[in-house]
Amino acid sequence: MNGRWTAATLAQAAGGRIVAGDRSAPGPSSVAIDSRLAAPAVLFIGLAGSQHDGGSFADAALEAGAWGVIVAEDHAAGLAPTASAVVIAVADPLRALADLAQAWRRELGCAVIAVTGSTGKTSTKDLIAGMLAPSRRTVATFENLNTEIGLPLTILSAPADTEVLVLEMAMRGEGQIAELTRIAEPDVGVIVNVGPVHLALLGTVEAVARAKAELIAGLGADAVAVVPADEALLEPHIRSEIRTVRFGPGGEVESLPQALELPFASAHMRSNALAALAAVRALGVEPSGLIEVELSQLRGQRLLLEQNVVVINDCYNANPMSMRAALDDLAASASGRSVAVLGDMRELGPDERRFHAELGAHVRELGVDVLVTVGDLARAAGPPFGGENLHSLDDAAQAAAQIPAIIEAGDTLLIKGSRGVGLEVVAEALCEALPPAAGGGA
Q: Residue 383 phi/psi, 5° resolution?
């Protein structure tokens, strides 16, 4: 935020009132929701959580020298700030965070690209940022700060000279993408794909499409929607009055230019790159040369270990669509044995075991050499795969203990499962058993 606002401007943007401090004081330089990060020039916002109310930590933030705090009315009355600190009382701190972010987005006046999708949205966000970096001052969502808390914090972290914001939008239910779109006011809205995720909550893939399409519904008249050319479920949600660009076979953006070099060859990442290309072209940017892409953690990073063992660490999340794409890449890229370490895919509703069984059949059809299932749901993938190269383990800890003994020199291992399975410990165990080779990349 860089101190461009005064305390009074900030309070108005947040929909609150100043109960202590100088109204004309220059504003803070950053925002925190963790009182342990409070420091001079930092604004602390006390959000109410499921276990703790952040407002109860406002005193600690002020004692740490915070510029000031935004808290609910009932917390503001009991605070004893220093003479220079600002206390702003609001009806709802979470709404205040959202409104503050929306106001800062307008103050920046920069272009905004919003990205959502059932799978690949984080990688697409990273690709967009990589394509823009050589020519635009770009701020992108860090890791998975893509919720009603993370997205506003990303906006508020953007310096005043930002030219493009690239914002990832997560969805756990109806109305959430709509709220994030309200805050971000995107110039370009990208839906990477629609697939069977969050079915335990939404019920059908059609409902998933409706929830994702809230991004299209919230775009302004001059905005651009970027959607897959082959996704029929989104067609009922396309708005004729705004420009829509389709990517993939049959779309306006169906191939990558020869002048563009990407540091990967997998089919699903190249599809994500088409979505990214359509998005940056909507802003008048034509990327070329080698695109430096720093993928977010646990999302397909390849690590070369000793004995020429390659680990594909893709264990941040999983659903049937992303699992198939990652397995296709494993089968195509492995030079030695291919080993799939697959954990439970969660939130798939009443058909969850069928989805896992279908995944096991796909693993067999691809000719993957070894399958290791981790968790009760993933165990259903075992029988369709069959054979002596099947290992069914109970949890990530057991997998971390046993998998180093299963691998052989030259293996390529895919490690993937839903976040709650915690398969990152398997990658850590492999790195301990076989330290990274010189260079570390694959």
A: -55, -45
| Section 75-91 average pLDDT | 88
pLDDT bucket at 315, cuts 50 / 70 / 90: confident
Residues paired with residue 228 on neighbouring β-strands, in sequence order: 247
Which amino acid is present at 424? Answer: E
1 within domain boundaries? no
User: Is 422 contained in some domain?
Assistant: yes
Answer positive or negative: Cα dihedral of 193, 195, 198, 202.
positive
pLDDT tens per residue, range 116-173: 998 888 889 999 999 999 999 999 998 778 999 999 999 999 999 999 999 999 987 8
CB 355 within 8 A of CB 348: yes
Answer whether 33's CB lies under 8 Å from 47's CB: yes
Which is it for strands 260-261 and 164-168: parallel, antiparallel or unpaired? unpaired
In whole angstroms, what is the distance from residue 276 CA to residue 44 CA? Answer: 34
Q: Give the other-Cβ count within 10 Å of 386's Cβ.
A: 12
Residue type, 262: L
Q: Which two tokens stand for residue 244?
A: 């829509």
Q: Distance between CA 157 and CA 151 in Å, rounded?
A: 10
Q: Establish how many alpha carbons lie within 13 A of residue 15's alpha carbon, considering only the half-sphere containing its beta carbon.
A: 15
Amino acid at 59: D
The pTM of the full predicted model, rounded to 2 decimals, is 0.81
The CATH number of whichever domain residue 227 belongs to comes to 3.40.1190.10
Tokens 């990558």 belong to 256
Identify the burial level of 244 via C-beta atoms within 10 angstroms of its C-beta, where 0-12 means exposed, 13-18 middle and 19 or more buried: middle
Rounded percentage of the chain residues whose pLDDT exceeds 70: 97
Asked whether residue 273 falls in the same domain as residue 332, the answer is: no
How many domains, the chain?
3
The answer on pLDDT for 176 being more than 60 is: yes
| Backbone phi and psi for residue 72, each to the nearest 5 degrees, phi listed first | -65, 155
Residue with tokens 């030259």: 410
Q: Which domain holds residue 117?
A: 109-290
**Rg, C-alpha atoms of the chain:** 24
Please state the three-class secondary structure of 429-442 as a single string: HHHHHCCEEEEEEC
**Which of 263, 290, 317 finishes a domain?**
290
For residue 336, name the pLDDT band (cuts at 50, 70, 90): very high
**List of residues 6+ apart from 143 with CB closer than 8 A:** 296, 297
Provide the CATH number for the domain around residue 70: 3.40.1390.10
